[in-house]
């Protein structure tokens, strides 16, 4: 039987929890102290995580998981993204692995700050301008983590046949000190981490894989050094019949050093809105 990390099903979103948090009351004659405590509390509201985070740890793996959005909000965000996100087609929907070109078994799009590019699987992609919903979700993630992001990779899985193979997000243009924040909307899907020393028949160590189920409205933070030591994948699950959208928010280094500028695939849509044609 497969062993999964059991993740909690807290029902409330961060925003509603923050709003209902009680203020600490102080005596009238202690005004300065009261003011200091109020300021500290406001700072905490801005960058704390009032819903319970779950820590997921193993050797060289450090992740945090939380249900960021309520079901209603997650349903709404999914619908909005279905309207706004424009996915790559044709040549742009292919990747190169060991020199061979393949169709991607899902749909992909890249959004972010102006001019940013990201190279993975042999293809360099230019970020389309943020859409309002991507911006909203990015800001919600920043609010609960205190981390900023300038790029998002959008993956859309039409059903459980669509998948993502084992890989690490360790490209040199990614800030190695920044976590990768993965927001999931739609079908719950299994997500599997495998240690680099425990892959394949030739593996030199026996380390158990870490298996999670990523829920609708969830946020998984993959903190450094997770992506150095652990590969991750989203395997085929034939019983899953509904779509899922995953957003991985990333921080791309702004220095032009080492940034490949060749073979850049242009962003085909400038507005981030679907064309009617
Ligand atoms: O859809 C997922 O949860 C996986 C996404 C992923 O592995 C990636 O964007 O690197």
UniProtKB/TrEMBL annotation:
Major site of localization recorded for this protein: nucleus
Biased composition regions of type Basic and acidic residues, renumbered to the chain: 27-36
Cellular component GO terms, alphabetical: nucleolus; nucleoplasm
Positions of 2-oxoglutarate binding: 155, 157, 167, 232, 244, 248, 250
Gene Ontology terms describing biological process: DNA alkylation repair
EC numbers on record: 1.14.11.33
Location within or outside the cell: Nucleus, Nucleolus; Nucleus, Nucleoplasm
UniProt keyword Nucleus present: yes
Cofactor requirement: Fe(2+)
Domain called Fe2OG dioxygenase: residue spans: 148-253
Family, as annotated: Belongs to the alkB family.
PANTHER family in UniProt: ALPHA-KETOGLUTARATE-DEPENDENT DIOXYGENASE ALKB HOMOLOG 2, DNA OXIDATIVE DEMETHYLASE ALKBH2
Name recorded for this polypeptide: DNA oxidative demethylase ALKBH2
